[in-house]
User: Fold this.
Amino acid sequence: MIVGSPKTMLTTTASDPLREKILRANRAAHAREGALYLARHPEQSNFYQARRLARALDAFSKAAIPGGALLDLGCGTGYLTLPLLERGLQVTGVDLAPEMIEALAARLPRNKTTVCRLRVEEAGEFLRQDEELYDGATVSALLHHLYDYEKVIEEACARLKPGAPLLIYFEPLKDAGHSPTGHKLHRALAALDEAVYRLEMRWRGISPLDEEYVWADYQRRFGGIDLDRLEAILKKSGMEILRVEKFCARRYGWAAWIGNRIFKTPNTFYILARQANT
Ligand SMILES: C[S@@+](CC[C@H](N)C(=O)[O-])C[C@H]1O[C@@H](n2cnc3c(N)ncnc32)[C@H](O)[C@@H]1O
Assistant:
């Protein structure tokens, strides 16, 4: 069942004009994405990335209680929600954009409708209002869209039961530390990958969204998410870090393979952690 009204959320919580602007930009960008989100973002779903995600979800599911209740913040069209449901877990998916939630609802298998709750709501607002404790949480490609990702992470950790895992997936890595040569190779590969992507999108009649992300990708303005800072926040919130992987995300699997195996120039990361507080 889909519940929530993002319009209410924007008028009740958006006291900071910059925060409000970022929320509006995200709603607008993701309203345009809707069902086309994964087609427009093959960097998340190409063969190379799909294998990495499957491994991360296996490790996450192993740490979660079988059949447990999970929270997927910024669930989008269900890139993590659907495989988590397939693994027998129950999922509450929360997203700011109704169009993304609708696309997810349309992809939901009939036999999963009773174990999947969908909410159209801002992540921080949801965490402040919902009183449930969860057996695990996932946050994929959300933090870089947030004005105050630190607060959202702290609040998400506080909603986890002891031992519950948290997967923070696919976030842009700040200060990746490439050598000057590595950086040049990384830029050249990115340019080639992007050029092929633009051609493919034109051929498929899918318009790329650029302007829409100028404010929506707010944390990219600061170079991405600072991994050390995030780890410090997690530890302060009682989390034990189980795994950190840095990797190179590219639109195409072949480009991701070159970036990871040959150039070794990560630009993205994921963290798997566990609530250690009892
Ligand atoms: C890059 S997409 C990722 C979607 C999905 N997690 C995935 O990995 O494919 C980011 C999602 O976060 C949502 N979002 C952005 N800001 C949000 C916020 N403040 N609260 C809740 N969701 C938000 C967007 O609507 C969008 O669906």
Notes: Strands lie at 2-3, 69-73, 90-95, 116-120, 136-140, 165-172, 239-247, 268-275. The two ends are 32 Å apart (CA to CA). Residues 23, 26, 30, 44, 74-76, 79-80, 95-97, 100, 122-123, 140-142, 145-146 surround S-adenosylmethionine (CB under 6 Å).
